[in-house]
Amino acid sequence: QVQLVESGGGLVQAGGSLRLSCTASGRTSSTYGMGWFRQAPGKEREFVAAFKWSSGRTYYADAVKGRFTISGDNAKNTVYLQMDSLKPEDTAVYYCAATRVGSYRVPLSSADVASWGHGTQVTVSS
User: Fold this and answer.
1) pLDDT tens digits, residue range 108-122?
2) Pairing state between β 120-125 and 10-13
3) What backbone phi and psi angles, to 5 degrees, belong to 40?
């Protein structure tokens, strides 16, 4: 399956913006999906957003809808997560995720995920 490398993240004040990037390498194609999950201390890992390469369709958790935008660059095998109007409750480790190549699925739950990135910290101060 694919290998995922994330970049971006950091510390920002409430109301600010950050952009995360995740590049896939290995057996890439348009037959799978990529997305982002996050995990705050003491909480379960939760779905944030997903992107389906074959259609360009996007999916969002209710908590981030209207504030976060996921997009993909096919030529770079990279998905981006633009995070605007950040809130302290968005503080978490953000993980890039991918489904199995050939599945045509998107990662909407941890059970869908075949590959994980190493995670990147996002901290939003109040």
Assistant:
1) 999 999 999 999 999
2) parallel
3) -90, 160
